[in-house]
TrEMBL record:
Listed GO biological process terms: L-glutamine catabolic process; pyridoxal phosphate biosynthetic process; pyridoxine metabolic process
Catalytic activity: aldehydo-D-ribose 5-phosphate + D-glyceraldehyde 3-phosphate + L-glutamine = pyridoxal 5'-phosphate + L-glutamate + phosphate + 3 H2O + H(+); L-glutamine + H2O = L-glutamate + NH4(+)
Assembly and binders: In the presence of PdxS, forms a dodecamer of heterodimers. Only shows activity in the heterodimer.
Protein name per UniProt: Pyridoxal 5'-phosphate synthase subunit PdxT
Catalytic activity, EC: 4.3.3.6, 3.5.1.2
GO-annotated molecular function: glutaminase activity; pyridoxal 5'-phosphate synthase (glutamine hydrolysing) activity
Cellular-component GO terms for this entry: cytosol; glutaminase complex
Species per Swiss-Prot/TrEMBL record: uncultured Propionibacteriaceae bacterium
Alphabetized InterPro entries for the sequence: Class_I_gatase-like, PdxT/SNO, PdxT/SNO_CS
Pathway: Cofactor biosynthesis; pyridoxal 5'-phosphate biosynthesis
Gene expressing this chain: pdxT
Gene3D superfamilies for this protein: 3.40.50.880
Similarity comment: family membership: Belongs to the glutaminase PdxT/SNO family.
């Protein structure tokens, strides 16, 4: 397979920026809003935005259940920021009725950086991504409080006053970052995910 079909969940948030980045990396991209949009995807991106809103809309549009089922069956996924929250098995500081899609054995703390500063920028080295650190933009971002034994920690940042915090992890074919690579024009994270999707489809 040379050009995988990757869906971008487009219920709310910055789906468009992911479409641009994935297309630049050679993927066929499909916006996902309805259950039928999930058919025959090779991978899916859950964008940044507001995780509580995306959660609610996913239930209203009946896309939650088929997406959770597809993730359980192994659909490769990448989530940035709110997408990290939605792909986490557990969330701290969520709203009372907030649900996630799950699929990664992590506990994330929502709006974690917000308790230090609203937004935060820093350079972060990501294991598996070459050519130097990424410039990472964090906007009301979560971080990973706890990761299960099958989760690989790919990147951490030193947060002033809070110490080193996990901001990128991978479990099998699921990959999440607290930050927004789709906002910087640096395509390395999207290329990493497109490569991951291509190798998952081959195996
Ligand atoms: N704070 C948002 C949430 O809880 C995430 C912010 C973002 O995606 N930039 O979903």
């Amino acid at each position: 397979m040379t050009s995988p079909t990757i869906g971008v969940l487009a219920l709310q948030g910055d789906a468009r920026e992911h479409v641009v980045a994935l297309t630049a990396c050679g993927a066929q991209v499909r916006l996902v809003r309805r259950p039928e949009d999930l058919q025959q995807l090779d991978g899916i991106v859950v964008p940044g935005g507001e995780s509580t809103t995306i959660d609610k809309l996913a239930r209203i549009f009946d896309v939650r259940e088929p997406l959770v089922a597809a993730l359980r069956e192994g659909l490769p996924a990448y989530g940035s920021c709110a997408g990290m929250i939605l792909l986490a098995d557990r969330v701290l500081d969520g709203t009372r009725d907030q649900q996630t899609f799950g699929s990664i054995d992590i506990t994330v703390r929502r709006n974690a950086f917000g308790r230090q500063v609203e937004s935060f920028e820093g350079d972060v080295d990501i294991a598996g991504i070459d050519d130097g650190p990424l410039h990472a933009v964090f906007i009301r971002a979560p971080w990973v409080e706890q990761a299960g034994p099958d989760v690989a920690v790919l990147g951490q940042v030193d947060v002033p006053g809070a110490g080193p915090k996990i901001v990128a992890v991978r479990q099998g074919d699921r990959f999440v970052t607290s930050f927004h690579p789709e906002m910087t024009g640096d395509l390395r994270v999207h290329r990493y995910f497109v490569d991951l999707v291509v190798s998952a489809a081959r195996s």
